Amino acid sequence: MLDLHSRNEQVNIASVSSLARDKGLIETIGGVTYLGRIVDGVISFSTPADYARIVKERASGRKMILLGPERPDPDNVNDATSHGHLKESEQTDRTRCFKKIGQILPSNIQEIENACTRVYRPTGMLSGFHDLDRLTNGFEPCDFIVVAGGPGMGKTSICLDIARNVALNDQKSVGFFSFEMSTEQLIKRMISALSEVEHSKIRAGMLKEGEWKRIGFAATSLSTASIYFDDSYGLTVSEVGDRAWDLKKECGLDLLFIDYIQLMLESLGERKEQAISNISASLKALAKELNIPIIAVFQLNRFARR
Question: Catalytic: which of 140, 180, 211, 239?
């Protein structure tokens, strides 16, 4: 059903059973009979608007219950008195979302004073590239950073270098979603960069004794790093978010990489430009929810590079 929803297709017994047959899962889920029982037990609404209205009314009823002993009847949230109480409650809820500037100015002024009195050091997470850290001031929580470039320009390599530096130098936990390369390919690239042995030699197995030693040292160092790879193909933004949250809960998560954005488009039935915009907005929201920086790779085409 999530698959159908992600394609903006209608979810019903016919579409679910058809997709299940296509994927060879119809017997695994209990057959059409089981699907029929599920449908029989579902309350049906004629339109999405009906469903939205009922949900809103139930939520309003819950708010009325919380208004105190003088509250009106929560089962009749449409009368004038109830409506007035409810509007007051909703206005109070919205007001709580605002912060007066005078309340947050002191902490900001203190941060500025601290920055003026200390020796300069980037406040965010360091990439390990000094010039980059000086320009960006480090990666801050909630940042959404896009690494863009044409094919073969080293986008994945720079991301792997940053991931390695963050994990080894600062002992941070790093997640890396790779939709293009396998985990094995990525690890070989990391070993090559850390050992300073050419990647082509590692792939061909044409190594000298000294190079083998450097590779051994690199592998030993990387084995202690908290870097977690997921090379599953065709994940949606929702699936990426779920897996990132699971990783954060189980192992911790300080920095997340997405390589690369365009390969998340396959399951979306939108125009490419609009889909990229939606994915970028969703990843920015995810960075804020997780309270970590997210670095995403974006591949430019030849036309965009001119």
Answer: 180
